[in-house]
């Protein structure tokens, strides 16, 4: 009786944390997505059409958030810029070293980081599901060969592979700088980072799906479908795949924070998303150098780190809730 009460209490706690995670995640997602027309909109910055997230005014560099203390010198400089009709960035979260609106850059960076994270996780789920399903369904020598290949790839350093691919593509883009515009280079760079993270993070998914397929293929309903001559495609789509949706959904939810963290880490190292295109990783990287004992511009590091940490925490809450929801053993308690 006591164990049942403990399990019920644990489920209620997981459910509450799941609701909290979904709420926080929706706020961050909607804020990043709905603000795209604003953050990526073109404005007049010193007579030059510029996207809002990269519009700069060097005279207003490193201004603190509008609700933080500003010096008399900063107030006088701000008033002078307003009187001259120059571009004045928003100061909700302050400005960076180039005088760019840090609030707009955090929103734009959130869209980039979350897009890379979700797309990379989707890619890893698709590759891992197909690979694991083929290995588990085929069995025998083919299964052994495919799983030994997974073991070999597991032994390779994951981050090193992503770094080498990113550096190679970056070198290629540098060699073709004259033939490709800035927007084209940024797009290829983001696409490469997305593909690199997704293409090397499917190994755990493949093992999970293979184990599930090996178990499901011996179930009576699968034996019955084979006995009546159901085609392989229909067996997979109508009988096997629906029973795999639980592990797939849970893994996909847990793979998204891992992909976001990988993108942030690589961008923090300077080999991910390149400035002026923002991401939470490169914003945190640039903010780290602004911490010193003389004058610390704390907002340049605090906000991107807070957004990364909050997003990862919310995604893990959602993943734990889905794991509890789709775990048949826990659900039966």
Topology of this structure?
Layout: H1 2-34, H2 36-39, E1 42-45, E2 48-51, H3 72-84, H4 102-138, H5 140-155, H6 158-175, H7 182-199, H8 203-216, H9 220-227, H10 232-269, H11 280-288, H12 299-326, H13 328-331
Antiparallel strand pairs: 1-2
Please sum up the structure shown.
By secondary structure, this protein is mostly helical. The chain has helices at 2-34, 36-39, 72-84, 102-138, 140-155, 158-175, 182-199, 203-216, 220-227, 232-269, 280-288, 299-326, 328-331, and strands at residues 42-45, 48-51.
Strand content range = under 5%
Secondary structure: helix percent? over 70%
Low-pLDDT runs of 5+ residues are 328-333
* Top-tier CATH class: Mainly Alpha
| Sheet with most strands: strand arrangement | 1-2
Please tell me the overall pLDDT: 82
Radius of gyration: 25 Å
Biggest sheet: strands, sense, closure?
2 strands, antiparallel
Task: Using the coordinates shown, work out and report the CATH topology.
Answer: MetI-like fold
What is the fourth-level CATH superfamily? MetI-like
- Total domain modules: 1
